[in-house]
Each structure stands twice: as structure tokens, then as C-alpha cells.
Design brief:
Blueprint: E1 2-5, H1 10-20, E2 26-29, H2 45-60, E3 63-73, E4 79-80, H3 94-104, E5 112-122, E6 128-139, E7 155-157, H4 169-173, H5 177-193
Parallel strand pairs: 1-2, 1-3
Antiparallel strand pairs: 3-4, 3-5, 5-6, 6-7
Helix pairs in contact: 1-5
């Protein structure tokens, strides 16, 4: 089954290809299709994921998968949340986002945080369903590690001492919020995504 990933982020494409691992699933990048840029203006991860998946599916005539994910920090009233990618202003400036986060948490003892990921799957007709994954942890005092992307250098998952960026991709992929959402997607939609292309959700 052909499914379009409604993201132009190559890091997400690589991770989701590895994490889903569903036989028969062809996960294709949205950059290979004529799809308009989707403004992520929802106030929840679910709203953004559904919007991206639905618009991509309707534009391409293929099933589409989208995720929206981010970091929630307890001491910051669960921010940056849906603004994670543009926390410091410019979208995707990972270093600036991490600097701002660490500055806001300077001298703050409560370092608890969690990553959340919502994955939405839309049929070409625009009918959507979602799953979610969560990874709890804490924010480090300074960036550490060279792997990963986003907030990986400052996020330490619960029960571990290393940041995501200090872990190998295989280590991270056994713990991450995206892994847990992908696992939920496999459980919920595995048989659908490994089968033939369908016009809509089966009854």
C-alpha cells in the first residue's frame, strides 16, 4: 500500500520508515507530490496531525500519514508543546530552541518533561484516525550528544542517564514517543497498511 508522509522533514521520514516496518507499506515523501504547504495552526498535536494528513490525502489521492509531536515541560506550563519546532522564532532552528529552553529553566529545579507524538492516518476521502505515544523524562542542564535532532541533546528519558542525542538511533527508537506512537499505529492499522490500496476506511 502506498502512503504519503505529510512532512518535508527528512529526519521524520527516516525515523518513521524504520519504526513502522510494516511489510508491503510504501512510505513516500510528500516532496514527490504537488501538495500545498499546510499551516500548522491547531492548538493540539492531534489537530495539526489530522489537518496535515487530510489535506495531503485529498491533494494526492493516496492515503496519507502525518505526525505532530513536541516537548512539554512541566515547569513551563507544558510549553513549548505545538510550538516546539519554532520555540525560539525560526522554524526548525534546533540550536536556538535548545538555548531558549535551557535559559528559561536556569535555576529551575523541576526539570520534568515529556515528548508526545500523535500520528494521523487519512484516507483519500479525508476520513482520519489517530494514535498517540508519550515518552517521559527530564531536561538536562546542558546539551549532550551528537545524534538525533530537535530537543534530543537536552532530553533524558525516564530511567536513563543519557540524552537521546547520546544514544544510538537504535537505542532511541526503542524508547521514543514516535516509537510508541508507531507501535500503536502498527497495532491499530498494521493489517490495513500491509494490504492493497483502499479507497476509504473499511467498515
Amino acid at each position: 500500500m502506498k502512503v504519503i508522509l505529510a512532512s518535508r522533514n527528512p529526519d521524520k521520514l527516516r525515523e518513521l520508515q524504520a519504526l513502522l516496518g510494516i511489510p508491503g507499506l510504501q512510505l513516500l515523501p510528500v516532496s514527490a507530490f504537488q501538495v500545498p504547504e499546510v499551516e500548522e495552526d491547531g492548538d493540539t498535536f492531534e489537530a495539526n496531525a489530522v489537518k496535515k494528513a487530510r489535506i495531503t490525502a485529498k491533494s494526492t489521492g493516496h492515503w496519507a500519514l502525518a505526525d505532530d509531536s513536541g516537548l512539554e515541560v512541566y515547569a513551563l506550563d507544558m510549553k513549548p508543546s505545538v510550538y516546539s519546532a519554532r520555540f525560539a522564532g525560526r522554524h526548525g532552528d534546533y540550536a536556538a530552541n535548545n538555548r531558549k529552553l535551557l535559559e528559561l529553566l536556569r535555576n529551575v529545579s523541576d526539570r520534568r518533561a515529556r515528548f508526545r507524538c500523535v500520528i494521523a492516518l487519512s484516507s483519500p476521502a479525508g476520513r482520519c484516525r489517530t494514535v498517540e505515544g508519550v515518552c517521559t523524562g527530564r531536561i538536562a542542564d546542558a546539551p549532550r550528544g551528537l545524534h538525533g535532532f530537535g530537543y534530543d541533546p537536552v532530553f533524558i528519558p525516564a530511567g536513563h542517564r543519557k540524552t537521546f542525542a547520546e544514544m544510538s538511533p537504535e537505542e532511541k527508537n526503542r524508547l521514543s514517543h514516535r516509537f510508541r506512537a508507531a507501535w500503536a499505529a502498527r497495532q491499530a492499522w498494521g493489517s490495513l497498511l500491509s494490504g492493497p490500496d483502499l479507497p476509504d476506511w473499511p467498515d
